[in-house]
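Lab notebook, bench 4. Still working through the backlog of constructs that have no structural model yet. Next entry is a single chain of 463 residues. Request: give me the structure tokens for it.
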Amino acid sequence: MMEQEHDPLLLEQDHLANTYNNSNKRYGKLVGYWTSATSSLKHFVLGRQKTTSSHHKLMEHKGDDDEDSDGSDLDLYENGDWYASSPPSSSFWQRRCGRILRWALCLCLALPLGLLLLVFIIYALVFRPPPIHSALGTTTTLANFTQPARLLTYNIFMRPPGVKNNANDYKNDRLDHIITTILPHYDIITFQEAFAFGNHRIDRLIEAAQHEGFGYIMSPRHGPWELAADGGLLLLSRYPLLQADILEYPRGLHSDWLSYKGALHALVGLDNSTQVHIYTTHTQASYGKGGTRSQQDIQMRLDQFGHLHDFILATTQGDDKTPIVAMGDFNIDSVDHTNGSITDLPVHHSQAYTRMMDVLQGGGSNTFSLVDMAYTTFGYHPVTFGDYVLDGDKVVPAETVLTQAQQVLTVQSIDQLLWSPLNSSLVLSNVTVEKFLIRYDDNDDDNDDDNDNDDSTTALYHP
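Model written out:
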């Protein structure tokens, strides 16, 4: 090893290497000075953008010689050279502006999203259904079922705030009327268009009903984040609810897409040995002028009736002893309007009605039969929407406050009361259609109604 350290050949190689390195250092300094001078000239002549480009080239050159540099180039930048004293480049300001814009964009997105989240949380906390004071599934039943149970189906047009057909639909006044006049006269009530979305009117109705001794089930509530309202169905019963089931149809067409329409089912115990299956539904509406119904609307309703049929089968589970009542706003005009005048007795079935009844009864599978109690009772389809009255010899709309202008005088029969007695001794009787006609008084800016209820009725009700 000692011999190798004093080897003349190695010493000569070391001497050459040192000489070469020192030459490179001197060359690097010269290049640095030259580059600095030329860059300063370019900065003076061409402006900051060119200077930045020259600076990049200088840094690239310096990076290549880092290993052999003695720090003289670094001294050049630290001792007040042209770059250190020059203002920030345009790319520097572009990066800073970019960061400011990104932060501003994040704030612009975060603030409304945060407020929206807060609104959703408040909505979920505020618009919750009232508690059920009459416990579902209770074994308590009436000992003596001596008085007839009074049934009612009623589309109450209690739509979400801001949704109305005309200038005013008097939601609060009609709600007060329902609470004070309707609830006390019936035992089992099915409401349609009792929407709880975005308001507490239906909560008021439920609380008042519970004070009257009703238990209830209703359509599930949906928040605004789902872009959908509830189905607007409410089932009230003074008798114990032994079973409750809820069905939501696939989303409908037109503005019905914004509501999860469906059906409700309750097994109601009338006494210790008598029960009845109660169903209510509200199906796809039609929005054509003058009550016209498109084939697309009709097909959507038929699909919903198919779901309702399956729902009845699933919830009765082969029970062939408990009768079935299906009532509500089926939105199928049962009347054939192809011939005759508006005042003719509506005795002829429409094709849509015939198809509806076929689908609901399983298409000939003999699963269960349903009797149209209104038609059986009257011998014709009673008008439940777009009705008329005679003013002398003139036919005029019976109601124009709730009914949309293009739907007046369409004389439709769209509410149904269907009955399947099966092997029960129960009888459904005394079917009536109660008129609910809103009258607007220009003088006192108030409204009135023209209905009178019989305490023993089984009624169809529609504005």
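Notes after review: The two ends are 115 Å apart (CA to CA). The chain has two domains: 19-87, 132-462. Flag for follow-up if needed.
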